[in-house]
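Lab notebook, page 48
Experiment: co-folding of the full assembly
Goal: obtain a model of how the components sit together before planning crosslinking
Operator: M.T.
Materials (sequences as entered):
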Amino acid sequence: MEMKLDPPWQRALEQIKTWARVNSPWVIHYNSGSCNGCDIEILATLTPRYDLERFGIKLQGSPRHADVLICTGPVSLQSRDRLLRIYEQMPEPKFVVAVGSCGISGGAFQGCYNVVGSIGDVIPVDAYVPGCPPRPEAIIHGVVALLQSLQKKDAAPQSVEE
Amino acid sequence: MDAQQIGKGKFVVPIGPQHPALKEPGHFEFTVDGEIVTGASVRLGYVHRGIEKGAENRNYTQAMYLMERVCGICSHVHATAFALGTEKLAGITAPPRAQAIRSLVGELERIHSHLLWLGVAAHEGGFDTLFMYSWRDREVVMDLLEGLTGNRVNYSVNVIGGVKVDVDDAQRDAILKGVDFLEERTHHYIKIITTDETLLGRTVGVGVMTKEQAIELGAIGPTGRASGLERDVRVDAPYAGYKDFPVRLVTDEAGDLQARFVVRMKELLESYRLIREILDHLPTGDLTVRAPRRIPAGETVSRVEAPRGELFYYIKSNGTDMPERVKIRTPSLCNWASVINLAPGYKLADMPMILSGIDPCFSCNDRLIKVNDRSVSQVWTWEDLRQHGIEYYR
Ligand code: SF4
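Observation: model returned without errors.
Model output:
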């Protein structure tokens, strides 16, 4: 259901939405075929030394409650449909962060027969975090950079960019 | 999570592959009668990437990088097993110092893996405080690994014929200091898991596996040792540095979840002792021997003890610089049977704990897919399989 307001009000509403989203994005994590290395580093970002939650970021269980999908690993044939399904279940606007070299290009698994390709081949990705695996600091930087780019776009109508 | 009804009062609860508890995809179906689980099944394969096949198109050095990435948590043991097998084929042995460093990094990795597991298992039990504490302390060993190898995960320590990192005095002191700190913390954790009421309520008498069952189900690693199974490759068939630095076996008789906690924590203490011993008596000498680029034809097996149990590698060489066949059997796969057989009779709420009790690792067991199509004969010839593969991926 889309609410239609007068343009100034609509703009104000968009601003409030962006403000809320930037201050407390809920993320969901899916492993589409990774070696676990990236996943344990993502988990490490939530723990006391790195504490991602100080940015208001919360790891969520259900795609329907999430704003950001953090995805790791190359996409394997079996998890491809799952990844699409999770992506489609997320409410708009949604953002995707691909973590690890595998998510960028297939990494070490390039050419393996059950690997479809990178995450970008399957769903649109907004931010890439390189590394095998990236350090927790790098993952935090990636997420924060995504949030900042949202802030800059501010009230402009948002679309998911390739 | 949606449930579908089968028969009267019975539901099938499908969980996964994307689920809040575990960080990796696996699909489970639990049949429940009220709160009690009456049947369980697991479907794996979401992380199947085709690593064994992929290794056949890479030379030994490249394949080593691929093997490390079978699993990010126990990457070092994979590379060690692969290196040991390849060295056996090539007829060389790594120098003693290299062997000792392999064991050293292997033990550091075990510490990181067991602390990681303690946190995840506590989290499944709803004890998030312990999760946060153990992961905070785990950062200490991550720092040591990073200082030693340059990377927090996937350390890439092994080369064929030796190792590429050395331990200097500063690193030695740092490791000893870190180990002292961790030892103190581990004693604290042992106190928690044996005295904390809430945790005891969730672990004592849950998922009990007798020694006979453990043998029958082929349980290995800490899961088996918690049921009194005296099996540890480091003891039974010492490899790398374990010949010079023997390991004491840690077992427990209880066989329940609590025993699995205790065994893993006591193994940590054993790892600390071993690390000190290795550092005190580190052999001097070279780090590598020269390895041929083409490995002589032949086949071999190598076994190592991963944090989760026995890891088995089969390598076949045809005389070129690429392996002809690599077969990996990982510990998590062996332990699945125990979960599926132990689950019935316990509450649905206990399932995450029982699951995490074996320290499952999906990325390492998802190298296998089963073709389940009743319309065709179950026995496939090589030609059938090949044809099926061509049709399937067309
Ligand atoms: S980028 Fe590296 S650590 Fe991350 S999933 Fe790929 S192989 Fe594993």
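Interpretation: The two ends of chain A are 25 Å apart (CA to CA).
Next step: discuss with group before ordering constructs.
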